[in-house]
Design brief:
CATH topology: Rossmann fold
Strand content: 5-15%
Number of helices: 8
Strand order of the largest sheet: 3-2-1-4-5
CATH architecture: 3-Layer(aba) Sandwich
Distance between the termini: 25 Å
Largest sheet: 5 strands, parallel
Order of helices and strands: EHEHEHHEHEHHH
Shape: globular
Number of strands: 5
CATH class: Alpha Beta
């Protein structure tokens, strides 16, 4: 972690010092994790992302996140990959655009599981790295997080804007520094489909799943 970075001191809601952080991937969570470590927040990573498709892509993204958590000595909770339940949850929303109803349903499912784990294991504050990405609607993410947390009076969703104070830029800098696997689509099979449709329309090749990751492994 770069000691020259000038981050603000973070204080979770209600002065809590223990946070359950839902992480979608290492590139998005890198800055969030470093900022929380710097503020001496006791946090645990909760990896629950049954939307990621196919399984090979899911395992690559999870492994990158595990390795970075280990490097920083942060506990990592590996939740189930209940992909069938995810497909059931978004049934009928297959052609919704990015940031549409399908994304809300996806966020709801992931945050509901996060909030349940928090409630069952004594975490009073939850948050997520999802909102730091410019590809996401932060209000949409925060609304899903708050909705999930509201199921449990003891649990609060922390709506901190991880993009501000240079957070978004540091996210890219950390990803480059750590040489994280850079996924080329949001994660679900429908975002993969739509990204490939856009690529073909613009004369670009289809995504080769894990190409960068496996090329790195071979060097």
């Amino acid at each position: 972690m770069d000691s020259q970075v000038n981050r603000p001191q973070l204080i979770p809601p209600a002065g809590e010092k223990k946070v359950l952080l839902h992480s979608c991937c290492a590139p998005c969570s890198g800055e969030v994790m470093e900022a929380m470590v710097e503020s001496k927040i006791d946090f645990t990573i909760f990896f629950y992302n049954p939307n990621i498709h196919p399984r090979r892509e899911y395992e690559i993204r999870k492994e990158e996140n595990i390795l970075f958590a280990q490097k920083m000595n942060i506990p990592f909770i590996d939740a189930d990959y209940d992909r069938d339940n995810w497909f059931t949850r978004v049934k009928g929303l297959e052609w919704e655009p990015v940031r549409g109803k399908r994304c809300s349903a996806c966020f709801d499912m992931r945050f509901e599981r996060t909030a349940l784990y928090a409630y069952e294991h004594g975490f009073k504050v939850i948050s997520s790295s999802l909102g730091i990405s410019r590809w996401k609607d932060m209000n949409q993410v925060n609304e899903s997080g708050a909705r999930a947390a509201s199921r449990y009076p003891e649990v609060i969703y922390w709506t901190y804007n991880w993009r501000k104070f240079g957070g978004s830029q540091r996210m890219y800098e950390i990803a480059k520094r750590e040489e994280f696997y850079q996924q080329e689509y949001c994660g679900c099979v429908y975002s993969l489909r739509d990204t490939n449709l856009w690529r073909m329309k613009n004369g670009r090749p289809r995504i080769e799943l894990g190409k960068e990751y496996y090329a790195r492994e071979d060097t």
